[in-house]
Task: structure prediction
Amino acid sequence: MITDDSIQSMGGKARAEALNADQRAAIAKKAAAARWAIPKATHFGELEILGIKLPCYVLEDGRRVLSQRGLQSSIGLGTGGGTHGAHRMARFIERLELKGLNASELMARISNPILFLPPHGGRSGYGYEAQVLPEVCDFILTCKDNGLMSDEKYAKIVFACNSLVRALAKVGIIALVDEATGYEEVREKKALQKILEAFLLKEFAAWAKRFPDDFYKEMFRLRGWEWNKMSVARPSYVGKLTNDLVYERLAPGILNELKRRNPKNESGNRKHKHHQLFTDDIGHPALSQHLHATITLMKASSDWNTFHRMMDKALPKRIGQLPLLIDV
Result:
């Protein structure tokens, strides 16, 4: 640590004292010029996407800039800002690039975030040109299409990027029509924001968590497995148990129909979670009620065999006509 009495500090003072007035003025002028060289934002606003506020700016040179923190949050990469945030983004893209896809141009832009001043003073901040967001999404989706992001830990990021690209494309064509017709001059200020939000809410409704943590926590307890809420890795047998406890008992024939509509791909994975095919008015409420009853029986049981006997008695497997739990 350098203190006021350190050799470095005393050396700095000595050099400063050795400068004449003109030299000190020149140094101060150079420092001021460096500060003024930082571009300033002339306009500021916020995009709100599923509860995440994404600050956006227009710089005096016309560049549209998104907040670094907001951009990272929008695709599920956390909220680290500054050079640390840039490093986090760069490391993520670099890890994907090492798997075989070239991202040199994107890496160059991510590794050099824009330092700018906010419109009304205050501390400088970091951001990216707005087009970086769809470019990052496109690269991630290309990685997914090439089988480079099949791990479940990437699932939410891939889903977010896919939804953002589709939503931004939809809003983009609306904006072009409005500009061509002149309607942009009379439309409500946040009309495009509302269209974007409505689209994403619909998209992410399918992603909403339907299986409470308690379902898996109690399953692990009864099976004698170690429970780690933060881990996405679960024994493959969990899927079979879920079919047994939920889908085979929820409605007659429902599991076979879900498998037909949501088949496994060549890698053995399904495109959707089974519950994402359920209807909002019948399917999801029925699932929620069944899970609540199942968890109650789990908590009342001391071992797996006791619990399973109680399930067979209280919530037996169903046969008969298939109710309308799935979207047709």
